[in-house]
Amino acid sequence: MEEYSDKALLQQFEVEATRPHAFNLIVKKYQERLYWHIRRMVVDHDDANDVLQNAWIKVWNGLAKFRSEAGLYTWMYRIATNESLTFLNKKKKKFLIPLADIENQLSQSMEGDVYFSGDAIQLKLQKAILSLPEKQRTVFNMRYNDEMKYKEMSEVLGTSVGALKASYHHAVKKIENFISGD
Amino acid sequence: MNTNKENSDEIRKELEGIAPRLSKIEKVNPFEVPDGYFDNLPRLVSDRINEASTAHRAAVRTLTFRWTAVAASITLIAAFAYIFNNTAHLDDNMDLAQLDIEEIADALVDEGAFTVEEEDLIELLIMVEEGKQSATEEKESDTNEIIEYLIDSDIDLTTIIDELES
What we know:
The structure holds two protein chains of two kinds.
Chain A: H1 6-14, H2 19-42, H3 45-63, H4 72-94, H5 101-111, H6 120-130, H7 134-145, H8 150-157, H9 161-180
Chain B: H1 5-18, H2 20-24, H3 37-85, H4 101-110, H5 113-116, H6 118-152, H7 157-165
Helix pairs in contact in B: 3-6, 3-7
């Protein structure tokens, strides 16, 4: 499939007649990257699917007014991040789960998840990641898995580069300690 | 945005410096998706957007109707207050709480409430109708802005609709 530039897709989106087609192409271009980002945050596939679809609706509603200097993907990545964090907070409130226990629950659900194929080391690593506070986990995933630059992370999270470096450092140290245990 | 080699190397070196054990773990994606998930997703997204657009239009209609109903109720109350203020000739000893609507209407007719002020009443109703139309147009525009705000602010639209309809 021919892959259009973001600029070309946005130009097509501006024209009402080609808007649905352009949006479809945007979804196809970015759906996997956004899905994996969300999946790593919410863990469960069904939850990730719901969050991703909600994020795409937000993108559809906001795209006509999109004027970000940061770029289309950064903007969508920010929406996906916010949707994921909102989902996790709602889940805590809905099931009256104490803040510290949601990660335990996600960790347990991962063990029986048919869509988790990692070995013992991977399972331990994922549990270590889930033991991090939400924001720290987000920062870790962005840097470790998505290999984002601090500047890009700063644009997504609205946090200073210095604070992000510190947060990533703390997160990595905690994970190192977790996997070194036993 | 994603990796170029230079950035990957920088991240790897940074990780080796902080966490030697973690840096030795192979980076693999341990999660999977159902077969054909990404092939079907664009269509699912498209369906959801169409549903959301329908819900959005329904919410606008519902909110507009509610505002109109509130405006009409206030108008009705104001009209009754106006009539009662100008026809205070009922028997002072009459206990209104014990009368039904028909008895009150009979009493008003007997007292000439509608004959004396018919023209004023018609004029009032015309003014009310004109005001209602302009208020409805104004409210429809406001309502659209409210909906946009609620959607942008991540407030669950379906919950709002449920609340309004309950």
